[in-house]
Amino acid sequence: MSWPAAAVNRVIKAYDVRGLVGDELDESLATDLGAAFARLMRGENARQVVIGHDMRDSSPSLASAFATGVTSQGLDVVRIGLASTDQLYFASGFLDCPGAMFTASHNPAAYNGIKLCRAAAKPVGADTGLAAIRDNLVDGIGHDDRPPGGPGSIADEDLLVRYGEFLRSLVDTAGLRPLRVAVDAGNGMAGHTAPAVLGVIDSITLLPLYFELDGSFPNHEANPLDPTNLVDLQAYVRDTGADIGLAFDGDADRCFVVDERGEPVSPSTVTSLVALRELNRETGATVIHNVITSRAVPELVLERGGTPLRSRVGHSYIKALMADTGAIFGGEHSAHYYFRDFWGADSGMLAALYVLAALGEQDRPLSELTADYQRYESSGEINFTVSDASGCMEAVLKSFGSRIQSLDHLDGVTVDLGEGSWFNLRSSNTEPLLRLNVEGRSAGDVDAVVDKVSAAIAAHKVRDGAGL
């Protein structure tokens, strides 16, 4: 059957498939998505597709429908069942075949989606396959077409233990001091993977919080990027006397860290820590960071003899740069961490292992250890609702006038104000928002820049509203 273009465009995004279950994404569409993906992969000589899914109520049936579509085109299916997204990436690399992960990450329970990849976890995005899949759905899928050799088969394989073994093979955790590790799974997939990866390490005592798999997210949204979703973990760390706290999002591909005081450790700090450990293994290697990460990241990488490389925000850009440059590691402010040894894909659990190894091989508390990587104060991401993003940006730049030392437009606009202060202002791709990130030598410096940007945006909105 063929699908209306408007219906297809609602669910096929820039990087994945995502939509409201029933209204926008159902089993019929999932079947045809599977068929379209299989056709694309069959054209690249793939023979099988590995499929995993998260804990959402709708995930098993959607994954099953997708498998039906794949086999209708003559490709075999390997089902790994419940999985985190990085576990699916592992399966794609381990089995050397394309993959499909059914998840809507941190989105509410009413949503679901599909993250697609080629063999060895190579991404499938708008420019690398999703547009072709969209066109195939609009043009029409013929399930009665007889594929050469007949329909494919379906087999089940449990790769959870091998996934854990592989991650631990990349990080030396032998001889660590005893660590009490609090983990907030947010009722997401870390409740499935953390025991298999971290719980078997002799020196680690796992302190679980919200490990029950529940796609309705009864305790809090599974999005640790929002500080309100870290509150329970922060209290839990303090109450239990944990050495460290880890928080994962719904599909467990992002990891946020909390120190022994219950204070958040910025993803930029984690990026610096992991980057320097990787550079200890390979001097001079390239480390990728996006435009929002702290200036401390490239400074520390250079000081350790590495090559820092700036990227736009977003996994498609980071993964492309990882592949093009052979970078050993990449980190983003959103707590996505990418590893060359993990097929260039992101893994929150692997990043957690690196932090635990760094903490456990020395005697200082995490707050003192991470202080080695912190040089600046930051605002975090601040969002402004605007109707004229370009006009607001122009007004902000005008307000700073001669204070601007330099600027670039790699992703939005990044403005260097000198003396350690800078800010990035960029438009959201999906909402009428401007996103601001500020860094400076002191909290006062940061607050002053935030206030000035806020005032310029507010003044422009008044003028724009008045028609001036």
Automatic annotation (TrEMBL):
Gene3D superfamilies tied to this protein: Alpha-D-Glucose-1,6-Bisphosphate, subunit A, domain 3, Alpha-D-phosphohexomutase, C-terminal domain
Domain called Alpha-D-phosphohexomutase alpha/beta/alpha: residue spans: 11-128, 163-262, 277-376
Cofactor(s) the protein needs: Mg(2+)
The entry's keywords: Isomerase, Magnesium, Metal-binding, Phosphoprotein
GO biological-process terms attached to the record: carbohydrate metabolic process
Gene Ontology terms, MF aspect: intramolecular phosphotransferase activity; metal ion binding
InterPro entries: A-D-PHexomutase_a/b/a-I (IPR005844), A-D-PHexomutase_a/b/a-I/II/III (IPR016055), A-D-PHexomutase_a/b/a-II (IPR005845), A-D-PHexomutase_a/b/a-III (IPR005846), A-D-PHexomutase_C (IPR005843), A-D-PHexomutase_C_sf (IPR036900), Alpha-D-phosphohexomutase_SF (IPR005841)
Keyword Phosphoprotein: yes
Pfam families given in the database record: PGM_PMM_I, PGM_PMM_II, PGM_PMM_III, PGM_PMM_IV
The keyword Flavoprotein appears for this protein: no
Residues annotated as domain Alpha-D-phosphohexomutase C-terminal: 381-454
Segments passing through the bilayer: none
Annotated family: Belongs to the phosphohexose mutase family.
Name this protein carries in UniProt: Phosphomannomutase/phosphoglucomutase
